[in-house]
Amino acid sequence: MNNITVKVLEKRCEYKENPLGIDTSKPRFSWKIKALERAAGQAAYNIQVWDEAGKCVWDTGKCESDNTVNVQYEGQALESRREYRWTLKIWDKQGNEYETDEERFETAILEDAEWKAEWIRGGNLLRKEFSADKKIKKSRVYISGLGYYELYINGNKIGDHVLDPAWTDFDQKIYYSVYDVTESVKKGKNAVGVMLGNGRYSPYETTIAKNWHPLKKYGESPVLFYQQYIYYEDGSEDIIVSDLSWKVSDGPIVFDDIYDGERYDARLEKDGWDMPDYDDKDWADASKVDEKMGRLVSQGTFPAVKVIKPRIPVSMTQPQAGVYLYDFGQNFAGWVHLTVQGKPGAVISVHYAELKDEKTGMLCPNTNRNAEALDTYTCKGDGIEIFEPHFTYHGFRYIELRGYPGTPSIDSVQARVVHSSVERIGSFSCGNELINKIHSNYVWTQVSNLHSVPTDCCQRDERMGWVGDAQMSAEAAAYNFDMAQFYSKFEGDIRESQLETGSVAGVSPAYWSCYPADPTYATACVEFPWVVSRYYDDDRIVEESLETMTKWVDYLGSQEDEDGIVSFGLFGDWCPPMHANPVDTPFEITSTWYYCHDALMVSRMAARIGKKDVAQKYREVANKVADAFNRRFLKVDRYSASKFSDEELAEKIKSWLNVLPEDQRPAVMKRYATLYSSSSQTANLLPLWLDITPEENVKDVLETLVQDLEVTRAWHINTGVVGLKFMFDVLIKYGYEDLAYRLITQTSFPSFGYQIEKEGATTLWERWEFLNNDKCFNSHSHPFAGSVDVYFYKILAGLGLDEEVSGFKKIILKPIMSGDLPYASASVNTIRGKVVSAWERNEEELRYKVEVPGNTTAELYIPKNAWDKIEITEGTKCCWNGQNAEDVEGMTYLREEEKYVVYHIEAGNYEFKVIPVK
Prior knowledge:
This protein is of the alpha+beta class.
């Protein structure tokens, strides 16, 4: 090989390295290219796939293409339960050939007819013994247990999943996991043991009774499905399945509930129950499950819930005799790890909450609502004992420990951070600690609410897959985590919950029956395909969801009034300051706007996958709704649902106007218009974001919005979560960078700064205000306000992607240096490779570092930093002398703008220095 110009990284099949148990017949392959030279990249590739017999089942040949994302398998039909090897070869632009290491993927069970197991139940412990009498080559287990399960073979826990399987609507779809248990199975006698928990499959009647909305109950008790294959060296195989020959018994978990916690009595443990030769003569036989069960789907490429990391307490106090309060310094989701030594029957209780009572120092569980959030452990009395709950989780910062034998130390309790194992791909930091804290609070909030579905909260008796909460922060999540498979699964949940009418459920899976969803929520069925397509260049989700999306938009059309307005709603611009329900943005504004928005998004996605007729139809729908929206709500300089004319409004406030000189009255009218005419920040910014405001009205509507932010609200946001999502995009779009920065760094109420600096928040709240009474609802871990994190990455650090080119194929690097911010830095390991945008400045110079991955390009905006005339050097070479551009490798000068010098740049690393020229 001549000069090495690229490096191949992160070869994946269906977004995962060497996946075990994929059940798609057409898996996709992706890899990343790191450019070791400017403009370097892949010019061609070849993929070959080989079966277990060494036969090539797919050979792409040499494909002259720079594509590295989601190359779909088009070979011979894949077989169930088979391991396939795949190799990738690429050629760079100079014709150099690169061989890469061999990768693997293994198929799951691809045909329903291959399932031999039965669904069984009986107790929360189930066991089966079997013999393997020949030399074992390998063994695989295919298992699902509802609500949750833990699998043991010969005394060892299998896998690192917890709270498995992933939550779905179990009537329609049930996930199973595939485990390689080759090392756990031995020649001779073996035993398999499974522990079951209720989860969301079989909640207690008491839990259902006290929940404020009827919970769905699928079965009376937990159930198991188990199928294991043992492959021998001689080519034969055995199969072990769940059937009525299994033995069942109750165990040490005497109570387990998602909301109320777990009660574990170690005295009821059955030593050796998951080992061969255990005496189970007193155990009962398993019974068959009669209820309808959903289809089985592999979660082989879905990020399972796992214990992510431990966390130690930062303090321990004793507010009362026998009561110990542990503070972990951070609100998060998970459970405790307790170490104790006590007499048989001693009961230790662990109560969880987000807050403590500042007056008494005791736990304050008010934000848990009706969730008891209590784990108890009854000692066996056999030396040092360790307890972690198995089938529950909690949202908390504090725990209250009671009943501990003797006096605990701060080391007696640790915690476990638990959430879906999505890969962290993004990082952000800047020179403002408040902004860094907002970012940190968002990240903690988001992961605390990823538990196989994106939940609204993690502490109270809810924890539902509210589709609106999830879609509000979807783009922020995509900057920080690899969400491709997670959101694809959740979109599937939404599809399955849709009614024939087109109505979409408010929560998915539909554990609560909430139909129809508020349009500000149901837009999720459009948002997730858009985000996955845009950020991961993955159109499979669009193809699978197009019918769902069009049915939803058609449903909205069926709800129009004679003027084309959609008025129904439930949440709208949810949780503006000091309110839960929107008070100045009526449902008819947000619902009609989302009708227009969704039709437009459907049109764009349909065009992307070649459905031209669909694209044209819904573009026309969007245009029609935009016209109706403007006819009903546009009042020259503002949007309002009020029927008042300007003259009628003036009459309402004439006592104020009449004392002013006539030339001052228009300004006062504008100032108070939003207060007296059902106008609002949200009502004005939504049409500006969607570009449906007539050109002649844009300036006036924008002035009304800014007037309300700066004057009426004294530099404060006054929106709920809908307006918040679009606020910063609109302000940046129209040049109000410093206003956006002042809003985000505000520290008085309402603001993120108030929550952090005045109230000590470590996560994002549901409400702008601090509420803490037994009648309130204010989750202190609610991710829907996390949409603000996009502003940090895209605007402050300047790391964005082109609106028309998906998957970071074309990158936009355009930092906006607002206020007194001295530096900002962001990196994202995108689907095509790592992108970096990092700048720092002082009075004398600006330095800007960027990294662009192979096979991508970027439009680079080098800031002038408010200097009239600048000189730019890249490395040691001058690329801009204040008037003219100079040639630099990998860079093409495009234009000079008021605040930027703009270049097209190829893949590679660049370091710029900008200085003022007098």
